[in-house]
Amino acid sequence: MKHYSKKKIIEAIRGTGGIISSIASRLDCSWNCAKKYIYQWPETKQAYEEEKEAILDLCESVLYSSIKNGDTQSAKWVLATKGKERGFIERREVTGENGAPLVVKVELIGDEDTEGV
Hints:
mainly alpha; flat
């Protein structure tokens, strides 16, 4: 097995978006080897976590740019995921046959201590 320095691992992480196969390719090692090295030291793990956060930030900025340009689908998605506390949530009502109330039966199996619950 090859041995890599912290510095080499951190350099391999930068610009990958946190994709382990990309990191492994840069190191010329297997996916498992790259993952092992990423989590071997606090500094490499931190660099990896920061890289994953950076790609999420980039995705969010692209999403928000598309919303500013009038993309209503993206706007609806953001409202449904981040606007829940403001009431923007998709709701699905579940009913029984032909709109009748839904009857749910619960059967407890295997634990005698639940008898009578």
